[in-house]
């Protein structure tokens, strides 16, 4: 038989529950990680992984790295983002044979990669769900889904902005269902519609093309913008990046270990 709960203790607990602030990462739909503006990061998708960079966030290839690598980064106090291509087929991935030829379109400019027909969610959803299962099972905190703006490119398919919105929201939902944060990659035109669906943004070359101010909806929503330039020296974009609250790096195109942070 339970003893009666002391009234004074009950009142104290109720008061604490009313006044204690929620954990920083907690939200209405779960305790997934939510990086804040200005969070420093390392982005490495090629070469031997250098785990010595003293930053709180690593963004690495989801296929190329093991659960043990993610765990080692966690032990060092890092959050780890799982890079995946969700909008393009890659002939070098172990699941390349799962994609029927009917959903594979034109090349996207990178060797071995071709755009996907994102209208075919009946085909792509189970494949992408398995990829996100992999990220979750390896212990990643978040996912960076790449090639999320096919509708603005010559894909070989008549993709519309609505097709892209439906697909991008599908990817965000699949990530969230697995407890993963998810970043919107590029796709600047649809930021106003998608900022509520994504937990952070990843951008390439907004400074080179004079577009960085278009990322401010993420910063205003207290969500990080992880940004990289390739061709501009840091003195051409870092001051503006700091003003806007972006997390900016100078990287080489192959995205090896080398970096120069703002």
Automatic annotation (TrEMBL):
Alphabetic keyword roster: Signal
Matches recorded under Pfam families: Glyco_hydro_114
Signal peptide: 1-23
InterPro entries: Aldolase_TIM (IPR013785), GH (IPR017853), GH114_TIM-barrel (IPR004352)
Gene3D superfamilies listed in its UniProt record: Aldolase class I
Glycoside-hydrolase family GH114 TIM-barrel domain location: 41-257
Protein name (database record): Glycoside-hydrolase family GH114 TIM-barrel domain-containing protein
Source lineage: Bacteria, Bacillati, Actinomycetota, Actinomycetes, Kitasatosporales
């Amino acid at each position: 038989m339970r003893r009666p709960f002391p009234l004074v203790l009950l009142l104290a607990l109720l008061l604490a529950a009313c006044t204690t602030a929620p954990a920083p990462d907690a939200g209405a739909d779960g305790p997934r990680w939510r990086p804040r503006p200005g969070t420093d990061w390392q982005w490495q998708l090629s070469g031997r992984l250098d785990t010595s960079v003293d930053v709180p966030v690593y963004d690495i290839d989801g296929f190329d790295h093991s659960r043990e690598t993610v765990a080692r980064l966690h032990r060092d106090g890092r959050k780890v983002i799982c890079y995946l291509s969700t909008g393009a087929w890659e002939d070098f991935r172990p699941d390349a044979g799962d994609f029927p030829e009917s959903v594979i379109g034109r090349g996207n400019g990178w060797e071995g990669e071709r755009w996907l027909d994102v209208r075919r969610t009946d085909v792509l959803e189970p494949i992408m769900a398995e990829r996100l299962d992999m990220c979750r099972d390896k212990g990643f905190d978040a996912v960076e889904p790449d090639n999320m703006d096919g509708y603005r490119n010559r894909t070989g398919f008549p993709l519309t902005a609505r097709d892209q919105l439906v697909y991008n929201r599908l990817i965000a939902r699949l990530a969230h269902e697995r407890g993963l944060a998810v970043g919107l990659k590029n796709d600047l035109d649809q930021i106003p519609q998608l900022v509520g669906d994504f937990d952070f943004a990843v951008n390439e070359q907004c400074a080179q093309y004079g577009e960085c101010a278009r990322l401010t909806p993420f910063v205003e929503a207290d969500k990080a913008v992880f940004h990289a330039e390739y061709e501009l020296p840091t003195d051409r974009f870092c001051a503006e990046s700091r003003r806007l609250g972006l997390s900016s790096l100078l990287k080489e195109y192959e995205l090896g270990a080398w970096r120069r942070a703002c």
